UniProtKB/TrEMBL annotation:
Coiled coil: none annotated. GO terms for cellular component: plasma membrane. The chain crosses the membrane at residues 19-41, 47-63, 70-88, 100-122, 134-156, 168-186, 193-214, 246-265, 326-344, 356-379, 391-409. It is found in: Cell membrane. NCBIfam families: ncs2 (TIGR00801). One of its GO terms (molecular function) is xanthine transmembrane transporter activity. Keywords: Cell membrane, Membrane, Transmembrane, Transmembrane helix, Transport. It is a multi-pass membrane protein. It comes from Oceanibaculum pacificum. PANTHER family: PURINE PERMEASE C1399.01C-RELATED (PTHR42810), URIC ACID TRANSPORTER UACT (PTHR42810:SF4). This is Uracil permease. It comes from the Bacteria.
Length: 439
């Protein structure tokens, strides 16, 4: 592991007040682009996502006793299941909308708590056997490639029509080009925010070609002037702002809850990386059971307020590695800044004005990176695809996941392709023999 003495600020060290805000702002920038992109893709409120990201991180810090410098943001793994759940018909025959997915997201967080309790009682070995790289790797590939049509449609087509638009393609291509350029060229702390910078650049291009109108009563200038300085985010609290869709509960659970198996495996991977970076084993102290419980409760809180499920963020682990600043006070400061930002009315107007092709451009890069990270999991896990057993497991997961966006189970229940792939992968890994002798 990395020598902790190399830290500029160790986990329990507090920076000076003047430096504290700047360092926290740095972490906020690292998580901002991806955290806001998820609600923009799923129809949830970006301000709520920022608020639940900040609250979830503070809750995580509390649960891990201030010993784990991880930041929590919106999880990409749940995008496709949320979209599928939002399309389910409600009592009035109309789609439930994204709030319909909150029940499943809440229960997905509960899965974290159950796994955390099992780890506390029985250790982590059983979970690693249940979710080896031969299962998690191809499922992560499925998550990325399964979202590919969403990104391409947003980049190429007129929103809501499905009709090709050269203007939208131009903006998406410019945004994607900037993301690639920034990711390769930028160094230092700027290297962890290429997506945020690409969105800003794409926004400028969109404004130039007329996709962001500024003048007139419906222009951005008028909207910004009319927006209150402080405004409550559009929290969607069960039984208060919407009714929980109990009639579709089974379908929603099948769409979202199995994805928790994949995100739990990602959580373990993130904790291993954080341990190497900060020079102390977070799997032992404060313990994997505590970090999983913190992640799960953060997801449940986000679902209760109408935000996307939370997850530990690799972008912020990158900031830790680059800056050598591990202070939990800096992470907590970033969470407070995210929470405060969610209540700014002008900021919400600006977020909601980001054109769809700008999001589509960065989505092409991000979803591809997700798929590539699945391949990386297979490589780092030394999965031998020359072994027929491994080859069959990976092949079946890929076909089921990519081919079955939504699978109907009975008359009402539905299962996302990702969830189906994860379940089948776990089962195949458990029952298929490793050798002819074992069979």
């Amino acid at each position: 592991m990395t020598d902790a003495t190399a830290a500029v600020l160790d986990v329990h060290e507090r920076p000076s007040p003047a430096l504290w805000g700047l360092l926290s702002l740095q972490h906020l920038f690292a998580m901002f682009g991806a955290t806001v992109l998820v609600p923009l893709l799923t129809g949830l409120d970006p301000s709520v996502a920022l608020a639940t990201s900040g609250l979830g991180t503070l809750l995580f810090i509390l649960l891990t006793k201030g010993r784990n410098p991880a930041y929590l943001g919106s999880s990409f793994a749940y995008i496709a299941p949320i979209l599928a759940a939002a399309a389910l018909p409600g009592p009035d025959g109309q789609p439930l909308g994204p709030t319909g997915a909150m029940l499943g997201a809440f229960l997905a967080g509960a899965v974290y708590l159950a796994v955390a309790a099992c780890i506390k009682g029985f250790g982590v070995g059983w979970l690693l056997k249940l979710l080896p790289p031969v299962v998690t790797g191809p499922v992560i590939v499925v998550i990325g490639l399964g979202l590919a049509p969403v990104a391409v449609n947003m980049a190429f087509n007129e929103p809501g029509t499905g009709v090709y638009s050269g203007q939208h393609l131009l903006v998406a291509a410019a945004t994607l080009g900037l993301a690639l350029l920034f990711a390769i060229v930028l160094r230092g702390i700027f290297s962890v925010v290429p997506i945020l910078l690409a969105v800003l650049g794409g926004y400028v291009v969109a404004a130039i070609v007329g996709l962001v109108p500024w003048g007139g009563e419906a222009g951005m200038a008028a909207k910004l002037a009319a927006a209150p300085f402080v405004e409550m985010p559009n929290f969607a609290i069960p039984f208060v702002t919407y009714d929980l869709p109990w009639a579709q509960a089974g379908a929603i659970v099948l769409l979202l809850v199995p994805v928790a198996l994949v995100t739990i495996a990602e959580h373990i991977g993130d904790q291993m990386v954080i341990s190497r970076v900060i020079g102390r084993n977070t799997l032992v102290d404060p313990g994997l059971h505590r970090s999983l419980a913190g992640d799960g409760l953060a997801t449940m809180l986000a679902a209760f307020l109408g935000g996307p499920p939370n997850t530990t963020y690799g972008e912020n682990v990158g900031v830790l590695a680059i800056t050598r600043i591990f202070s939990i006070y800096v992470i907590g400061g970033a969470a407070v800044l995210a929470l405060l930002l969610a209540f700014l009315g002008d900021f919400r107007v600006a977020l909601q004005s980001i054109p769809v092709p700008v999001i589509g451009g960065v989505a092409i890069a991000l979803f591809g990176v997700i798929a590539a990270s699945g391949l990386r999991t297979l490589i780092e896990g030394k999965v031998d695809l020359g072994d027929k057993r491994n080859l069959l497991i990976v092949s079946i997961i890929l076909v089921l996941g990519i081919g079955g966006a939504v699978v109907h189970v009975g008359a009402v229940a539905q299962l996302s392709g990702t969830a189906l792939a994860a379940i089948v992968g776990v089962v195949l890994n458990a029952v298929l023999p490793h050798s002819r002798e074992e069979a």
